[in-house]
Amino acid sequence: xxxxxxxxxxxxxxxxxxxxxQAGEQVVVLDDLTTGVAARxxxxxxxxxxxxxxxxxxxxxxxxxxxxxxxxxxxKKQVGESVEMPxxxxxxNVHGLQxxxxxxxxxxxxxxxxxxxxxxxxxxxxxxxxxxxxxVPINPYGETKLVGEWMARAAGRAHGxxxxxxxxxxVAGAATPELADTGVFNIVPMVFEKLTEGxxxxxxxxxYATADGTCIRDYIHVADLAEAHVAAARKLAEPGxxxxxxxxxxxxxxVSVRELIDLITELTGHEGVTAEVTPRRPGDPARVVAAAxxxxxxxxxKARHDxxxxxxxxxxxxxxxxxxx
Length: 325
Description:
With 325 residues, the protein is an alpha/beta fold. The protein has helices at residues 11-22, 55-64, 79-84, 86-107, 140-159, 187-196, 222-237, 257-267, 293-299, 307-321, and strands spanning 2-6, 26-31, 47-49, 69-72, 111-117, 162-168, 170-172, 202-204, 216-217, 219-221, 244-249, 255-256, 276-278, 287-288. Helix content is 40%, strand content 17%. α5 links the parallel β5 (111-117) and β6. α4 packs parallel to α5 (140-159). The longest helix is centred in the first third of the chain and has 22 residues, at 86-107. The chain is globular and about 60 Å long.
């Protein structure tokens, strides 16, 4: 098999490339490098610089590399930006996937692993979010991911493409320091940035209906997430009828924002730093924790890393990319 990884030079994408290579698979990466970093990729992995909006480039890449499977990670993913620029998000995330699916159908590519998100659920009022929890996204980013799932499944039924839509919860950590998240859009690197500046980390609201008043989230190590992609790809490749999988990728354990920040300050040697409480952000649900049993039964996959592993590996990556502090 030969895998096309769109967005493969990104933080998550580079981990998926690494996991598939370690599983013995052939990989080619398509990435426009707006946020991706070419240096994350092994030298012997082909990199095609471009966008999924470029149908001719997709056709050429699929044919030239004998692509049999696609892992689609390329997308815009900042919630706040999606509210400000919804048309950009619909063009990149929805229209880009449409063109990719057209190229897959034309090129006879029969399997797709699609990067979705827990953002499709919106603000679920349940202790554990199952794959059957109603999807009511509250921002354009989540909307584009849900529409992407609909489109992938519909194209799969029409063109005989097996699909796996993987709904990520909160991703953190790094398999190696070089592959760490270099952005500051997720909570762990955001806290790191504040600590290295000598500033207080921020908590957005401490008056939620939770044990300590702060939001509760489910965190998943990026290396475990990458292994879930390999497991999903292997499942789709098994003999049998066209498959249609929708799976949560989480640990099934909730950690509050205050607990997470306290653990970060402990593990990074910043004990005694007190977080600053600021007003709630609009649209933040009190609790979003995955029910993670379906992926275990479907794929035999289970997360191996805990939150401490995520923080220590992410901190090693932060120090690697910020040697001057």
